[in-house]
């Protein structure tokens, strides 16, 4: 197994800034938009984007939430990996809002599918978009594509994409571990 | 923390270790958030069938289990003893085996005989949740009681909790003692001498016959109902005398200098063990207990259902 850096801290910074610009381009002042991070790892990305939007782009009162999809997943009892839940915090109405779901890695698409079902319990949003830092090509199980994308990577089953954040892992960096070279 | 329970069925609180308890409480907090959403349902157990077998009357527990199951999207069969073939002489094991033959995954059992759930678990191959077996145990009630207390106090270690009333016939008392002991709570039982079981101090609890003294000592009190339906002889002279000695009312509360939290597992006999004004006061968390009951039962069912394997799954 070999390990290489996919995104350095610098590159991540550039991508985060681009995300902010793209969000503003499509959602203006984000007054009717809610950014929702998927638990657990999407929340770090959410927090970074929100603080960038607030500090560098002077956008205030951003509606942000966390969504846990554990109980909506379709692999309950099918996978041997223990599934543990995290908290959901959405303290605003999503009725009529434009939602942007935020996650670090898009892989099979099943998490996003369960998030689409989970978000239903809060009402009917105007639209839902998807923002991901890493898109693993060729590994989708479902017809799901991102609207905002950091980078695309070719990774087959068995490869691992690791996204580390300075909040928990000292620095922002993305690795890819290849099973075969 | 472990992410799976150490047991396959919930028969007694005593089978659970502290990890199991924490896992159930943690999972219940997530479900509590879910049942407060505009749409209170998750699709998690859509391929699971649960049979609620109630051989004894119940309002709260039955509705609570039913709601918990429905909010997890499982299919439900409800069975009440009054209208069943038990009246034609069918045994408990035969009844349950027939129900299981129809591909039921989980049995929720309420039965008037102590040990019924345990007996069933030895004779059939299924996940069983004890929803009260006679005067023995009522595990989910104890879990929701302790969960409600934790919401108020945070950590329960070294808190003083009193259980007052008909300890002798109460399954809630025994399960509560088991669970609170595991959490490091100081427990005192209080009631008329005839309604305190002999040797109960061997469970590590104090005994008192003085209600005021007990209330002054405790941080929270669990008021139990007098279980007239289980009494085949007189344990105290009259309801009136019982309520004068052990009833919680405004006069009693005025004698206390400390704030206490009041729990009651229901059903309430207003004016006997607790007066209306106390039962409806802010100190009573009786309706919180009912709400938490659904979340706790969802957590228990969810965690136990994790063990059901799917055929043809990789």
Which structural category fits the helices and strands of chain B?
alpha/beta
Order of helices and strands of chain B: HEHEHEHEHEHEEHEHHEHH
Residue runs with pLDDT of under 50 for 5 or more positions of chain B: none
Strand content of chain B: 5-15%
CATH class of chain A: Alpha Beta
Helix content of chain B: 25-40%
| Radius of gyration of chain A using CA atoms only | 16 Å
Mean pLDDT of chain B: 92
Strand order of the largest sheet of chain B: 7-6-5-8-9
Number of strands of chain B: 9
CATH topology of chain A: Rossmann fold
3D shape of chain A: globular
How would you describe the overall organization of this protein?
The complex is a heterodimer of chains A (about 180) and B (about 325). Chain A is of the alpha/beta class and about 180 residues long. Chain A contains four helices and eight strands; from the N terminus they run βαβαββαβββαβ. Chain A has a five-stranded parallel beta sheet. In chain A, strands 1-8-7 form a three-stranded antiparallel beta sheet. Chain A starts with a strand and ends with a strand. Chain B has about 325 residues and is α/β, with parallel strands linked by helices. Chain B has two domains: about 140 residues, Rossmann fold; about 150 residues, Aspartate/ornithine carbamoyltransferase (Rossmann fold, 3-Layer(aba) Sandwich). Chain B is built from eleven helices and nine strands. In chain B, helix 1 crosses helix 11, helix 5 crosses helix 6 and helix 5 packs across helix 11. The chains are: A alpha/beta (about 180), B alpha/beta (about 325). The interface between A and B is medium-sized, with 21 and 27 residues.
Describe this structure in a few short sentences:
The complex is a heterodimer of chains A (181) and B (314). Chain A is of the alpha/beta class.
């Amino acid at each position: 197994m070999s390990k290489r850096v996919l995104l350095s801290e610098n590159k991540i910074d550039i991508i985060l800034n681009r995300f902010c610009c793209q969000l503003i381009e499509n959602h203006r002042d984000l007054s009717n938009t809610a950014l929702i991070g998927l638990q657990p790892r999407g929340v770090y990305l959410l927090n970074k984007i929100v603080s960038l939007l607030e500090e560098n782009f002077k956008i205030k009162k951003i509606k942000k939430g966390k969504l846990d999809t554990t109980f909506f997943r379709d692999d309950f009892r099918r996978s041997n990996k223990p599934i543990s839940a995290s908290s959901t915090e959405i303290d605003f109405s999503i009725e009529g809002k434009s939602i942007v779901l935020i996650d670090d890695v898009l892989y099979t698409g099943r998490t996003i599918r369960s998030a689409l079902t989970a978000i239903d319990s809060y009402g009917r949003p105007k639209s839902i978009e998807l923002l991901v830092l890493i898109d693993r090509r060729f590994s989708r199980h479902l017809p799901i594509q991102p609207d905002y994308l950091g980078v695309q990577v070719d990774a087959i089953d068995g490869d691992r994409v690791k996204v580390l954040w300075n909040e928990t892992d000292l620095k922002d960096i993305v690795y890819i571990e290849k099973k075969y070279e | 923390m472990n992410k799976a329970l150490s047991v396959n069925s919930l028969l007694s609180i005593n089978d659970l270790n502290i990890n199991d308890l924490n896992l159930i409480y943690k999972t219940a907090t997530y479900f509590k958030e879910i049942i407060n959403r505009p749409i209170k349902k998750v699709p998690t157990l859509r391929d699971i069938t649960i049979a609620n077998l109630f051989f004894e009357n119940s309002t709260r527990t039955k509705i609570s289990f039913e709601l918990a199951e429905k909010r997890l999207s499982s299919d439900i069969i409800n069975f009440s003893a009054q209208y069943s073939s038990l009246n034609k002489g069918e045994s408990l094991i035969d009844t349950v085996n027939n129900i299981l033959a129809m591909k039921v995954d989980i049995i929720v059992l309420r039965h008037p005989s102590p040990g019924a759930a345990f007996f069933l678990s030895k004779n059939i191959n299924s996940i069983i949740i004890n929803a009260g077996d006679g005067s023995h145990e009522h595990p989910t009630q104890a879990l929701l009681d302790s969960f409600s207390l934790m919401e108020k106090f945070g950590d329960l270690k070294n808190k003083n909790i009193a259980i007052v009333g008909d300890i002798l016939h109460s399954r809630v008392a025994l399960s509560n003692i088991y669970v609170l002991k595991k959490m490091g709570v100081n427990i005192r039982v209080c009631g008329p001498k005839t309604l305190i079981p002999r040797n109960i101090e061997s469970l590590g609890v104090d005994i008192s016959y003085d209600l005021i003294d007990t209330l002054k000592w405790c941080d929270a009190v669990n008021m139990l109902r007098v279980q007239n339906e289980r009494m085949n002889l007189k344990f105290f002279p009259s309801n009136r005398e019982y309520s004068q000695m052990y009833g919680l009312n405004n006069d009693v509360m005025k004698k206390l200098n400390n704030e206490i939290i009041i729990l009651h597992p229901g059903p309430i006999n207003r004016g006997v063990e607790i007066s209306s004004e106390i039962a409806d006061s802010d100190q009573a968390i009786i309706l919180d207990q009912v709400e938490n009951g659904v979340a706790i039962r969802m957590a228990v069912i969810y965690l136990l259902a994790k063990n059901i394997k799917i055929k043809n799954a990789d």
